[in-house]
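Field: sequence (string)
Field: structure_tokens (string)

Example rows 1 and 2, in order.
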Amino acid sequence: MTNPVPSQPSELDQLPDRDPQETAEWRESLDAVARAAGPQRASYLVRRTVEHAQRSGLPVPSLLETDYVNTIPTGAEPAYPGDEAMESRITAWNRWNAAAMVTRGSRFGVGGHIATFASAAWLYETGFQHFFRGKDGLADGGGSGDQLYIQGHASPGVYARAFLDGRLTEAHLDNFRQEAGGRGIPSYPHPRRLPWMWEFPTVSMGLGPLSAVYQARFNRYLEHRGIKDTSDSRVWAFLGDGEMDEPESTAALALAGREGLDNLTFVVNCNLQRLDGPVRANFKIVQELEAQFRAAGWNVVKSLWGSAWDELLRLDTAGALLRRLREVPDAQFQTYATRDAAYIREHFFGADPALVEMARLLSDDRILECFHTSRAGHEPRKVYAAYRAAVEHKGAPTVILAQTVKGWTLGPGFESRNANHQMKKLSGKEFRAMRDLLELPIPDSALDEELVPYAHPGADSPEVRYLQERRAALGGPAPARRVHPVALPEPAERPFAALAKGSGSQEIATTMAFVRLVKDLMRDKETGHRWVPIVPDEARTFGMEALFPSAGIYSPLGQTYEPVDRDQLMYYKEARNGQILNEGITEAGAMADFTAAATAYATHGEPMIPFYIFYSMFGWQRTADQFWALADQLGRGFVIGATAGRTTLTGEGLQHADGHSPLIAATNPAALSYDPAFAYEIGVIVREGLRRMYGPDTGEDRDVFYYLTVYNEPKPQPAMPEGVEEGIVRGLYRFREGEQLGSDAPRIQLLASGTAIHWALDAQRLLAREWGVSADVWSATSWGELRRDALECDEALLRGEDRTPYVTRVLEGAPGPVLAVSDWMRQVPDQISQWVPQDYSSLGTDGFGLSDTRENARRHFGVDAESIVVAALAQLARRGEVKRETVARAAGEYGIG
């Protein structure tokens, strides 16, 4: 028998077929089954064969999608290790208090979310009772515990559990979302607001899953580098199915699959609803997510149906139920959860004669149970089985797709309703119905129609004792954030001294100066191993390739190939204990790396010193939300905007020319922003940052991070003048006084930051030699820190204290007006204008960038030396200190205007 020609080309056509007749017989057998027993039977046999082949180790592609049923059959579920009745009572108390807290808060208009936790209660409770490890023992070298990324809208349930456990009081709950008085608790997981409980801010949707992947990856990094044994630490990320639409939610799935992060578990609460309606009204979000995760190399566990569905699946001998489950869109399932049995019989079972026959065997109560309440996410045995499968799986991360009903146990007014995300309270009648459903011993006399009470079984009740015993067995309370202060020794003087002495006639860009400093600091015997260089595939642009062979690029596989540049001194070296995190073209991934490293002092009790160096334009502009989350998570470290400024990056054009990042950074209260002009300023700032963030506690706010802008324009680096350290740190000092031109000569103060100081110095010479004006040049290392200090002084005035801002005090008495200039838009230096005692004006690079030489770009924006001269003369002319025609003459001579 000859092999028939396939109707469609196949990739297998290019491979030799050793036995075409055998191949044809296999095809014919499958066709025969399809004709005799139907396509469902043929499909079943093929899938069984593929499954057997995979388990036997045969190299066959995996399926991206399976049937719309549980991955773990009921008969394969492990024995449940807990007291299910006791845990049901604990969960009931938590459900009640979560709803009561939000309802009571609605009196003050502060709102809250009820429906999310109602759907996910067992997803959390099962983990807290049996899986989530605490941090007790960290101080004496114990484990790090598990890292829990709690879904933001589920926070009321976690607060309710902490109340039951005794970690929160009724007063705390009654001040939910009311923090201004100092007694409240934050709306969502916010480490900055409740630092003893929350580790990770998650309510900016999408950042939780992204951060969780890189946290799990950083845990491995610490272990592979011999810094911390994190082998018993697992990352759990609780997510909403609607949240998975955020691009950040799925941005790092391939990384987790590629690196086999089996210390990571995603739990996606598939209640089929997002904020305004169905997640996939006309499709199936569970099946879509399964295909995405499987394609990325994840282990997928679907936990969809409760035990009531077992009977229906046993009756499905023809596969009609599986077909129907697969074809019904999510929005229709949401409708089934709210309709009566007659509707479900007609619209679900009535679609197939085989299902009509099945429905005749089912009572109305069983149909309602299946379609209204029986979801695997509401049954602790199903959830436990899924979690156990996740922690036992090796070689890949696991995602659990758990199906629930949004608003479950809150009554028909909440369950599966599109509007339930915006519903903030239950009525007295609804609370009574909820009490009866949960079987809580709360008398009617305690149920005030206007002010429902909190409920607690008592500090010595069996429920509380059980809860606390389970948490003790798992290593203490969770979630919990612990900080064990570890002061790092001050690094050696030599790296800083090298920058302080200058470069002589050699021209060095400040980007290179910073890289050289860190390279030297990474050699420090005490702290060098704690530096974590992070770069999104631009290391060679920043001159960091010298670190490749010495520090190595982190890879959990090491280097399985011979690099093409192995015969060169600075070859591309990957290593399992590599120190550099070179993430490829992903600023979001690099920021997630940075956050994990910047908070390791709390997460793992290991202070790390990350520095994240990025193309200036693609840092804050792309990932400002992650910078905010970093601040909320109390991260520490250095972020470096390299190739900074609007005009220093020759020829790159609009999208690469950064003129506004320091302005975005100024909106972040934890960011200490610096725009250093010289190499020695970088040394002073980094040294101060190490002291403040990692040295002995002096009472200052240590939970900050330093943002430095560095430039790619080579310039001779001067030696550090004496006595300028305070000015560098605080933001302003006089770098060079103007020439003494006589008592009648006009005077002006030029304030410049970053590379703009070189234009100001050229302008200083031109003003003196060609126009008889004496100009002092000041280095403004931080417009932001000058403003921060001034704002603090303004606040002090409201308390009756008389404090003068540093910028006011330093400039007090300096003769003439002030002209500020930078390679940034004018709003950056204008941050300090109201506290400058002199007449103030500024120059900057407002507008869009463009491709050209540095000289032409600076003339275009009016910030080059000649433009500064004209602007200075114009300012003096307004004061009557030079003639107005002098301004026009200067502009004409320089070709400006």
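Row 2 begins here:
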Amino acid sequence: MTYQHLGLLEQPYDSLYLIPVGAVLHVPSNYPSSPPLLRRIANVLKELLSTREQQDHELISRFTKLPSHTFPLAIVSEQQAYMYAIRPDYFLWKKQKPELTLTPDSHHFDTRNLYSLSDNQLRNYFHDLLDSYVFAAQLPTLSRRQWKEKARSAYSQNPFIRLAAEKQDVIKAVEITNRSMLMGVLNPPEDVAFWRHRVEIVLRPYRALPPDATYSACNHPIQVTIDKESPMLHIYCETCNYAYKYDPFEDRVVLQEKINLAQAQKRILTIERQFNALAEGTPKVLAALRKLQQIQRWYVDKEFPEHAGDAHRLIRSLQGATFPIAPVEPTLLSLQHVKLATIDSLRFVQPYLDMSKQQLDQQLEKEQREAFQYQTEDTEKAVRFSTKGYTLYEEEVDVIEDYLARDEQMTFHLLIQVLKGEATSKVRTLNLHRSPIFGLLRPWPKKLIPQAIKSFW
């Protein structure tokens, strides 16, 4: 039975309406000829169609504009017929675009390999496909653009998406704060660890959503097709690489993950309350942050010399730091706006917690006078190494070498961190942040410190 016999001369099966389509897509040479499979498909469809109600037959016939009690099947052939089921989307959109035609590369084919299916698999496959046709036939006549708009609107109205939008400030604050260096100074540490563990659980369904579609539908181009597994529309955004289902009869969206909404509402409230409790339980940190915020506002537009005392070091440490507009509060929504350039600022500020601006001004002036005096004295000191305006003196090398003589475990990389004054977890674990050489070359750019070390080590 040739392609011409099947497609053009006659319809040999009562239950099938064969539609010839152009040239072959790709027919492997080892595939068997198609008439045996056609007979199997015809028998399966005859059985399935006989069990359908008359209403279904009428719906499918009006939808496809084909004779009643028949089902369409595409035949693509060159030397032998090769069959593809036609997705109901083709007939759905053809209502709005009468010129829409099937081509060998058409995305309206369901490319399931029908040759590989057993009789039971074939029966289940066409049973589901018939359900999809009945579903599509009942859809209101709307353009594809209108369906996209309705799906987007329903996505934004999904209860979980609405919850995410309502709690957007909390969700973002949790994400920011969870990565903040402040988490390392809140107490007790075991409660901080527990809170972080809960965050991973609570935020997982929000993180599963695309960044552009977490709080409302994205604005990217989307594809609308008939879902293969349920009587719904399948919505897919290639940019987000995310899909969801839309029920056009109930005007609702079904997300990939089933969410217990009451549980999600309770959990997001709980992690905010737990963080607030952690912050309230660390009053010393809060006091330090408030003072840092105040000092930054006092000297926001002023510049200070590099080589000076502790008060200058404190103010320089605030370069690049950010704080909320309002005074810092022990809450998640307030502390999310705190970003320190270095956690050492909390330590640097301790001697100045009770100082007024006038007192701190006096301290800064004193340090500047002392710095000038030391600078005068430095001109008489023996220099070991100098580069780009930074000088390492022999007496500083003596201090470093004296310490290294007692610490044989010190590595080159670790020494750079210690001299720069970086209180990393390893530095703190080894108690090196209390060593006499910690921060000795703090004013130096880190990339220059290795050159200084190589001058004596």
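free_text_note (row 2): The mean pLDDT is 87.
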